[in-house]
């Protein structure tokens, strides 16, 4: 299975859970948070890949890159932002 297909599964699940558990999703705040996190991820992923700390099986990559980082690597950031927003909202009870 390609990394991208696996990542899309988790991203879709996180998106659905966010919309099921959070009645009024704060999309503006989530978008700004996601933008910042993706920027930080792109910087540090490119550094660790450039230093050969992390390596990927190229046969399982889609072939899309941002610098040295495969696009699949950014799915973890998207899922974490969606998951943290859902959990935070559920635990604090804020609507």
What does this structure look like?
The chain is mostly helical and 95 residues long. Helices cover 64% and strands 4% of the residues. It is built from three helices and two strands; from the N terminus they run H-H-E-E-H. Strands 1-2 form a two-stranded antiparallel ribbon. The longest helix has 24 residues, at 27-50. It is elongated, with a radius of gyration of 15 Å. The relative contact order is 0.23. The mean pLDDT is 84.
Q: What would the keywords be for this entry?
A:
single chain, 95 residues, two-stranded antiparallel ribbon, mainly alpha, 4% strand, 3 helices
Based on Cα principal axes, name the global outline.
elongated
Level of helix content?
55-70%
**What order do the strands of the largest sheet run in, or round the barrel if closed?**
1-2
Largest sheet: 2 strands, antiparallel
Set out the fold topology.
Elements: H1 3-21, H2 27-50, E1 65-66, E2 69-70, H3 75-92
In brief, what are we looking at here?
64% of the residues lie in helices and 4% in strands. It has helices spanning 3-21, 27-50, 75-92; strands at residues 65-66, 69-70.
């Amino acid at each position: 299975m390609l990394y991208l297909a696996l990542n899309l599964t988790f991203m879709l699940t996180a998106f659905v859970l966010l919309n099921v558990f959070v009645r009024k999703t704060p999309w503006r705040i989530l978008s700004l948070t996601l933008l910042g996190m993706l920027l930080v991820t792109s910087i540090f992923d490119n550094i660790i890949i450039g230093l050969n700390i992390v390596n990927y099986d190229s046969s399982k990559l889609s072939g899309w890159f941002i610098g040295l980082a495969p696009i699949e690597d950014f799915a973890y950031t998207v899922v974490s932002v969606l998951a943290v927003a859902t959990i935070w909202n559920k635990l604090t009870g804020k609507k």
